[in-house]
Amino acid sequence: MVLLTGRTLLAGIVAMAASATVLVAAPASAATTSTGVRCTIVGTPGGDVLRGTSRRDVICGRGGSDIIYGKGGNDLIDAGSGGDHVYASYGADRVIAGAGEDWVHGGGGPDSLNGGTGQDNIWGEDGADVISGGDHFDVISGGPGADRIYGGAAGDNISGGTNGDTISGGTGSDSISGGDGNDVVYGGDGNDRLSGNYGDDQLHGNNHLDTVSGGPGQDRLWGESGVDTLNGGDGNDKLSGGSGVDEVHGNAGTNTCYYDIYDYLYGCFRDRSAPVVVGASLSPTAIDSDSGDTKVRVRVHVKDDLRVSQVQGWVSGLADDNPAQLYTNFMPMVSGGVRDGWWQGYVTVPRWTPGGKLSLEAIATDTSGRTTDKFDVASIQVTSTNPDTAPPVVKLKSLSATSVDVRTGAKTIKAVLSVTDRIGVTKMNGLRSLTVCFGRTMDGDFICGAEPVRTAGTIYSGEWTVSLTVPKGTPTGVYDLQITADDRILVSEDYYGPHLYQEWVDTYPSSVQPAQELSNATFKVTGS
What we know:
The chain is mainly beta. Helix content is 4%, strand content 42%. The protein has three domains: 1-141, no CATH class; 276-383, Sandwich (Immunoglobulin-like), CATH 2.60.40.10; 393-526, Sandwich (Immunoglobulin-like).
């Protein structure tokens, strides 16, 4: 490839233009199309100068070394084969450069630029552009705007420009610079050189021998597989060499490095141990559950040599044969810092919860994924003269269909359930309280429905609806429902259609009760 710069490039373009055919908007041949769209401006197989209008144009170069100006409008420019110069100008333009060594300028607006085969030079310029280099070595510059850039095959030279860009080098040994903004960069296959420059960047070396540099900002760097060199640059960075013998440099700032025994680390804080649960408290420490629901505050003190990422609490009476189990959500930190702080959440002890000691298990995880479980770090004493230890009672009120034909497409069956329980059935901390599935045998595959929705009544006595999708081609046969219901202290029961229930009775005669059989929880499928 010969690169033309300065006066040499200008002289070449002038000479090309002087010998070219100049075409403007004119009726196009009915037989000339691009991507199924009729061309409004059509070139010749030779070198042409094609100019668009202020409206939307479909410009087709057809062949030769063309110079194409889109002007205004949301244009489609198909340069065709040959070494072309394309200036898309303003508007949301689509450019297909085709074969040959092309020079493509997106101009203003969010453009879609495809270099095609050949060694291309592509500038996105203003706007959030989507740029694909295609085959061979390409030079791509996104320019201002949040661009998405794909280098494609062969080693590419890519610069994102300003704003937060997403860049994928593809195959080949690429050189990629994110530029200003918070960029996300994937090197892909090949020995890549990645640079985030300014901004809080995420850089992935992917495969082979990569050099990954974050630059100023709080960056995340992954070498991934291969022998990699990582440089965090200025700022508080997180670096992971991945598999292979890597060299990891945190550089300036407080840097966190994730490593294996084969890596060389410089300027890094290392995670050497799991979090330590120092202490915890529950408040109040004693309740009478007969008086109603009680909200209990859970506080946990955690230290870590690097950084605590999440803390959760589990309040349970299982150690004292009490069935109650209560979970907090992931708790926010309320004081201190991520290396030494207090985390706080809440659980609700429902009315009629059985009496006894409920103990807190604290579960803490750091940013390296190390986890600590500490049991019985605090407790609460519950009293009740009228406890409820019974599981929820489920009845199937109706099925919208008792047979479906899925030979040509999926079908949906709606199930309506009645659910009663003194403690109540409702979604707790993101956990389903009801799960409805269907299958033919206990050791076969089950398909579960969407999350049931309470459509009437209360959490103590309510009507719930669930949609079950029977996929296209499901094997022909008789299918039964299996329903699992949990109340607010996670006392659970399973219910079965008649055939699944009988299978359980035959296999485990003492583990199921007659109340668990739902005789109407069955339907037929005609399928494959």
